[in-house]
Amino acid sequence: MRVRKRKGAEEHLANNPDYVILNPEEAKGHWHEIFGNDHPIHIEVGSGKGGFITGMALKNPQINYIGIDIQLSVLSYALDKVLDAQAPNVKLLRVDGSSLTNYFEDGEVAMLYLNFSDPWPKTKHEKRRLTYKEFLENYKRILPAHGEIHFKTDNRGLFEYSLASFSQNGMTLKQVWLDLHASDFEGNVMTEYEAKFSSKGQVIYRVEAKF
């Protein structure tokens, strides 16, 4: 998600340490202490403006959620949503999704979400896709045995690539939705992109895969 630079975004994040973890390397292995409970931890890599992570947190107060995005302005908008919701079970990180093992111990994360990731359609950019094998190797480290990835996209090419990547890298596809909004799936929390695309009639794809 690309957005215009937001004035004061850095200060906005710095002024809300209850929700924004400013020194995430120090949090590695201590996330349950930071949240103040032993609830399972779910992370969203590429959390955008925070609609999904905030919605999930309100829906599931017994789960701790961490939204991750590298873009400063985008994360500041996510913080707005978290502050409005006053959801104590949400934290935000401004870090790169390729370096998750710097911030989480092996097996520290119970589940991982990838929603509407950049498809990077050119073959030369394959390594930047969040479902590329090297990303999956990092996810596997921070997830427990049989840990799950839940993935949504409107991009058919990326979806097909991801299904193959999951399968080729030792993951099992639990369930696949080729048209999520036309299915009987219950409890779907939409992202901003999802609401925008689905309103235009675009199909939303979803898969649950586990190691």
What does this structure look like?
The protein is α/β, with parallel strands linked by helices. Helices cover 31% and strands 18% of the residues. It is built from seven helices and seven strands. Strands 3-2-1-4-5-7-6 form a seven-stranded mixed sheet, with helices on both faces. Helix 3 links the parallel strand 1 and strand 2. The two termini are 28 Å apart. 39% of the residues are buried. The model has no long low-confidence stretch (mean pLDDT 95).
In short:
This protein is an alpha/beta fold and 211 residues long. The chain has helices at 9-14, 31-35, 51-59, 72-85, 133-142, 156-168, 192-199, and strands spanning 41-45, 64-68, 90-93, 111-115, 148-153, 172-177, 205-210.
Task: Name some characteristics of this structure.
alpha/beta; 211 residues; 7 helices; 18% strand; seven-stranded mixed β-sheet
How are the secondary structure elements laid out?
Blueprint: H1 9-14, H2 31-35, E1 41-45, H3 51-59, E2 64-68, H4 72-85, E3 90-93, E4 111-115, H5 133-142, E5 148-153, H6 156-168, E6 172-177, H7 192-199, E7 205-210
Parallel strand pairs: 1-2, 1-4, 2-3, 4-5
Antiparallel strand pairs: 5-7, 6-7
Q: Tell me the number of helical segments per DSSP (H or I, 4 or more residues long).
A: 7
The termini sit apart by: 28 Å
- Rg calculated over all Cα atoms: 16 Å
The topology string of helices and strands comes to HHEHEHEEHEHEHE
Shape verdict: globular
Alpha-beta classification: alpha/beta
